[in-house]
Write a structure and sequence with these properties.
Blueprint: H1 12-22, E1 27-31, E2 36-40, H2 41-57, E3 65-69, H3 74-85, E4 89-92, H4 99-109, E5 111-117, H5 121-125, E6 136-140, E7 155-156, H6 157-161, E8 178-184, E9 192-197, H7 198-209, E10 221-224, H8 236-243, E11 246-249, H9 257-267, E12 271-274, H10 276-289, E13 298-301, H11 308-316, E14 321-326, E15 333-336, H12 348-353, E16 363-367, E17 383-388, E18 411-419, E19 425-430, E20 435-437, E21 440-442, H13 444-451, E22 457-467, E23 471-480, H14 490-497, E24 509-512, H15 526-532, H16 537-541
Parallel strand pairs: 1-11, 3-4, 3-5, 4-8, 5-6, 6-7, 10-11, 10-12, 12-13, 13-14, 23-24
Antiparallel strand pairs: 1-2, 8-9, 14-15, 16-17, 17-18, 18-19, 20-21, 22-23
The structure holds adenosine monophosphate (AMP).
Length: 542
Amino acid sequence: MEQTMQDYPLTVQHVLWRVEKLFCRKEIVTKREAGVHRYTYGDFAARVHQVAHMLERLGVRPGDRVGTLAWNNYRHLELYYAIPCMGAVLHTLNLRLFPEQLAFIIEDAGDTVLCVDASLIPVLNKIAGKIPTVKTIIVLNDGGDLPAHDLGETLDYESLLADEPTTYAWPTLDERAPAGVCYTSGTTGNPKGVVYSHRSQFLHTMSVLQKGCLNIGEEDVVLPVVPMFHANSWGLPYAVGMAGAKLVLPDRWMGDGATLIELCQSEDVTILAGVPTIWINLLRQIEQTGAQLPKVHTVVCGGSAIPPALMAGMEKQGLRMLHAWGMTETSPLGTVSIPRSWQPEEESLAIRLKQGPPIPGVELRIADLSTGAELPWDGVAFGEVQVRGPWIASGYHHNADPGKQTEDGWFKTGDVATIDPDGFVAIVDRTKDVIKSGGEWISTIELEGAIMAHPKVLEATVVGLAHPKWVERPVAFVVTKPEHAEATTPEEIRDFLTDKVARWWIPDEIRFIAEIPKTSAGKFDKKVLRVNAAPLVEAVAT
Ligand code: AMP
């Protein structure tokens, strides 16, 4: 017997179809220098058609790469839809990369057109003359003069769009054609390109919406604080369109707690999404001002482990955090921690602090760090997380770093975790961050969580530094809350830890610093800390 189903391609075009046929009246709101920009999904869809006409007129053809260097705003969203729907490839450029990395990824992807926010021209200008593949630069501008630059001729997005027709005949696409590319930077070497297909984006979107995942409905108002230039903004740009949820975009004010509070209140936001450092600052702002966000029912948090004190603090303010894990190579969502019906209520907080079980569509396992043997799901054995599924990378562009795939087709994440008998993953560390002291492992994530529970501590991160006897010992870099800057001592932090972690886990040194360096995604940048850290006092003494 042959199956009798239509061979309907799974593409981003379907998301656009839903947006324009079903949700025309829903709003997209973007923060602006003064006030907000507001229009409907109907207005948005018409402009998406215009963008496709405009790009075609400029020579963009199916398969061509179009780069975007932009914040979370409505023009960026238009490009998120128009580029893949016309068969071209959306390349979201991480604006916080070093200039030479930015030039590298533009050339590696072969971008021919770049669309850049006017406010980010200074970032692009640092690589003027070093991006030979780029033929056209289009500026996304709210009006006013552009910053000075040496980029040669630039075109204005709004002027280009003005006379374009609002209906574009979208081509029939192969669901396995590339839709987007995003580069991930490892600890060493050049960034590596992860190329998403239409099919992977479609299936990832379907999974993101589900009740066991981010549970986004038409009635929701979603504010992604996770950048659209990083890991597809966790899939939210397509998920909101598929669901028809109202979208609120913070543009370049993502790190500004006051702006986030104001947007939540004025636009009735129900779902927030971002990394822990964003919520640490927001919580502080809320505690200081007494602001309330009663409409917010979910604060999605991923990118790094949620410190227990942060989850508890948010909970106190009525803000329920939803812990998710993933990476650029996993589109990015891989796990989401929602307690099971059979798990006891009193364990709920501890369970939600884990990264959670794989979402529908994703399979994972853990492998012994030395032998590679598969480990049991007993909540004790820890090993490298390996993952497979329809939106998991099977390699990188130009075959970079082929060693990340196992011979039997699983992706090696570089994350170390336990999995409990219910399938809940608990990330212990990155393979490159875990500390091996005297032959025993120390989880920096757990240690950081314990330190951040100290009432005077705002942020903390732990790295291993060379030790003459133990090979490596932990050192904590701690930022105190400003009002406690003078009065906090290393002994106080170390004493605080004595009944919370094993004695030999307690950091040899506590170093107070003004700010922890952050990565492009707002995570603690241990690489920078490690490179710049003075050696352990004990290492110098011997
Ligand atoms: P990126 O590809 O830049 O998004 O980084 C992915 C990495 O971030 C993962 O491999 C993890 O090491 C880390 N990560 C993401 N989500 C979590 C989480 N919920 N808890 C701990 N680490 C996380």
